[in-house]
Specification:
alpha/beta; three-stranded parallel sheet; elongated
Length: about 170
C-alpha cells in the first residue's frame, strides 16, 4: 500500500450539483429555486414566519414562569447511600455530606445541595449533613440511631449584593 494509491471506494463520494450552468444541465436558469419571490433571493431566513398570519408561538396561551431564584437539589435515596456503604466507598464514622457523596460517586455534582429521600433500606447508623430531607428519610435514619442535620445550601460568589440598587 502506497500513499499515492489511496482512494475512496467507487460511489463513496457524490459529485456536487453545479446549479445555474445552462438549461441542458437540468438545473440552469433559476437553479432549482423556482421563480422570483423572497425565497429565490440569497440571504433569506424566515423560520417561523407564517406570511403575516399570527405565528403559532403567539397564538398559543402562555402559562407559568421560570423562577430565577429556585434551588435545584440533587435527590439521593437512602438505599443508594447504603449501596455505597456496602461497597466501601462511604465511611459511616464520618458525616455524609455533598462532598463525600461526590467523592464516592453517588452523585455527579452537588448543584444547590443534596436532598435525602426515603426510598430503599438503610442498615447502617449514619450522620447526614444535607440541604433537605423527606420525613420518611429522617425517620429511617433516626430509627437506626443516626442523625440528619440540615445545612443551608452554599451561596454562589457573585461579588455583588442584591439589596443595593444597580447603577445604569
Amino acid at each position: 500500500m502506497k500513499l499515492n494509491q489511496l482512494a475512496d471506494r467507487p460511489g463513496a463520494n457524490k459529485a456536487r450539483k453545479r446549479v445555474g450552468r445552462g438549461i441542458g444541465s437540468g438545473s440552469g436558469k433559476t437553479a432549482g429555486r423556482g421563480h422570483k419571490g423572497q425565497k429565490s433571493r440569497s440571504g433569506v431566513a424566515i423560520h417561523g414566519f407564517e406570511g403575516g398570519q399570527m405565528p403559532l408561538t403567539r397564538r398559543l396561551p402562555k402559562r407559568g414562569f421560570n423562577n430565577p431564584f429556585r434551588k435545584r437539589y440533587v435527590e439521593v435515596n437512602i438505599g443508594r447511600v447504603q449501596q455505597a456503604i456496602d461497597a466501601g466507598r462511604l465511611d459511616t464514622k464520618e458525616p455524609v455530606t455533598a462532598e463525600t457523596l461526590t467523592a464516592a460517586g453517588v452523585i455527579r455534582r452537588a448543584r444547590d445541595g443534596v436532598r435525602l429521600l426515603g426510598e430503599g433500606e438503610l442498615t447502617a447508623k449514619v450522620e447526614f449533613r444535607v440541604s433537605g430531607a423527606s420525613r420518611s428519610a429522617v425517620s429511617a435514619v433516626e430509627k437506626l440511631g443516626g442523625k440528619v442535620e440540615l445545612v443551608a445550601p452554599a451561596k454562589a460568589e457573585t461579588g455583588e449584593t442584591s439589596d443595593q440598587p444597580q447603577a445604569e
